[in-house]
Amino acid sequence: MPYDVTLIPGDGIGPEVTSATVRVLEATGVAFNWDTQDAGEGVMAKYGTPLPEHVIESIKKNGIALKGPITTPVGTGFRSVNVALRQTLDLYACLRPCKTYDGVPSRYSDVDLIVVRENTEGLYCGIEFEKGTAELDKLIALVKENEGKELDKNSGVSLKVISEHASRRIVKFAFEYARKNGRKKVTAVHKANILKYSDGLFLSIANEIAAGYPDIEYDDVIIDNMCMQLVRNPEKYDVMVLPNLFGDIASDLCAGLVGGLGVAPGANIGEGYAVFEPTHGSAPKYAGLNKTNPMATMLSGVLMLRHLGHIDEADRMEKALADIIAEGKSVTYDLKSDREDTTAVGTSEVADAIIEKMISLK
Ligand code: NAD
Description:
By secondary structure, the chain is an alpha/beta fold. It has helices spanning 14-27, 44-47, 53-62, 81-88, 134-147, 164-180, 199-210, 223-232, 244-257, 295-307, 311-327, 347-361, and strands at 3-8, 32-36, 64-67, 93-99, 112-118, 128-129, 157-158, 185-190, 217-222, 239-242, 267-269, 274-276.
């Protein structure tokens, strides 16, 4: 039986990297019915929203989506489709594996990290107070009454909200992921020394959950120290679990350790639904040029295959990608040591080479 999967090509380079990925996924032998859905600025005129209800309904029906990046125009009041999808479908766990593949130009070798980012709250809870508003005045009065502190009237305020429920489920997710995938250690990353009530709560829940997984090593590290440790000794870490904003920043840091966004996959997972997408954005200046690297989307496809239980097919697809990267011939400009190298191939040629490689690995 083919899997019904919602396919959101996205915009910018999205359609190119997703169509290359679809070809490779189909060549694994796993059958898919793609339910293609458009979202983003391009559908605004037709539906009055960048994320029409039928797109959400399609993901709810199929349970799984493969998604290309979607542009968020700056300064238009246009809400990010990516953030809206995560919140509407309660995709609370953002999973971002960062692994070095031989042949990717990078300062590091042997990095194999899993970033588990809380996706629904923290500083992304969307509760903000704009400078000069009546709402801010009320907040200033409340803080004065309760804390005895006078906030500067010319301030902007964004709330960081950490709940027990969201902390519990994200830390559990990290430990369950570690257990299922043979990982040895989970590190909770936080700033509990300063943010005593938000990150302090996150840390105390993490300590409590960790006690239920005696088979998995556990420690906690303060975020600033973690950044330094990751740059100095990334091999000391395994699975990391972080509140939303720290997870966002650490994901990009870790993508940098393994050679950049071209090979950084991602998944947004909730209780009922999962959306697989690359970490990178829509890189509009490269749109339509058949130039950018489809491997981050393909590796997101590998995560999707594993999620569906197709471990052998996922392993073969990942091995084909790794071989193509190691050979260094059929790769895009970003995986060449000289980015001006004229032997770099295009997006769709990478898919051709990987399909051919998978056939030879059968
Ligand atoms: P970006 O990731 O699109 O591009 C940054 C740079 O990274 C590009 O100029 C390019 O040099 C490189 N790059 C990115 N993807 C690449 C690939 N596949 N192959 C080779 N090089 C690649 O980040 P940005 O410029 O900050 O964002 C552009 C738009 O994408 C924004 O509107 C942003 O909101 C959106 N965005 C969407 C998502 C998503 O859909 N999940 C994620 C991040 C950014």
